[in-house]
Amino acid sequence: MPSIRQLRFLTALADTLNFSRAAELCNVTQPTLSTGLKELEARLGVMLAERTRQSVMLTPAGADIVARARRVLVDVKDIETAARQHSGAFQNEVRLGAIPTVGPFLLPRALPRIRRRWPELRIFLREELTESLAAGLAEGRLDIILVALPHDLGDAVVEPLFSDGYQLAVSKSHLLAARGAAAPEDLSRTPLLLLERGHCLQRHALSAFPGIELRADDTFAATSLPTLISMVEEGLGITLLPDLAIAAGASRGHEIALLPLPGACPRRVVLAWRPGSPHAAAFRQISALFREVHAATISA
């Protein structure tokens, strides 16, 4: 039977495609890692990686076994975590991932409450795009993720937090600025300034009005909401801003007008974790806390 150590060697090699770097990740010497992988191949009776002087490439069998090994290692980690939980506290640390269009506007208000509830808990934060967060959760790199739907999260447990609508942001000199609200037709006439591809908010914004074709401004793509707001302020275009970001003060101090968008489909912000997580009950408590913080932020 393959050992956990050998499976870790294999996934490290898959991550780096380099024996030296894989050995560093595993805190072993390169000969130790190479020997362990050869023993694994001999035990399984199949070649896992093709080795040349210039490169390392997984074989089809190797790629399949790597995927299975990752699932095994995630389960092993959950077993270790469950054992720690039964021995006492909730757990020593949680690796929380969040998308950049939600995390900065929710977590600063939520984390102090979490620390008061679990004073011994250490939270390690990662801000990444949704695809990376979903992969990190499935692979065990992250314990819990804060993302927005619609998005495919596989078999993850999904806990709904709140719906996050939009407002149209325009410069104060824009023709729409004097209106009390904006209509879908107003958006369909002008390309929208949006975040660069990969941000789920780009996809969500373009689908805010099903049946109405909204277009992105192909001449510009921002990496953050503050950049979008500055571009709008300079009169370079219009955009959609999430209600959460607005309530948290993202547009404060900028010379822009915000128009409600009646009928727009909101994105759905959720917390997600692996089905086998031993901390599902605690994660549901954190979900309730996030909902409270969101309600307080929106009503402030």
Protein described:
The protein is 45% helix and 22% strand. The chain is α/β, with parallel strands linked by helices and 300 residues long. The chain has three domains: 4-84, Winged helix-like DNA-binding domain superfamily/Winged helix DNA-binding domain (Arc Repressor Mutant, subunit A, Orthogonal Bundle), CATH 1.10.10; 91-161 and 268-299, Periplasmic binding protein-like II (D-Maltodextrin-Binding Protein, domain 2), CATH 3.40.190.10; 166-260, D-Maltodextrin-Binding Protein, domain 2 (3-Layer(aba) Sandwich). The radius of gyration is 23 Å and the shape is elongated. The model has no long low-confidence stretch (mean pLDDT 88).
CATH fold-level name of the largest domain: D-Maltodextrin-Binding Protein, domain 2
Radius of gyration equals 23 Å
Question: Could you say which overall geometry the principal axes of the C-alpha atoms support?
Answer: elongated
- What are the low-pLDDT stretches, counting only 5+ consecutive residues below 50? none
Largest sheet: 5 strands, mixed
Q: How are the strands ordered across the major sheet?
A: 4-3-5-12-6
Tally of DSSP β-strands: 12
How many separate domains?
Answer: 3
Instruction: Count helical runs.
Output: 11
How much helix is in the residues? 40-55%
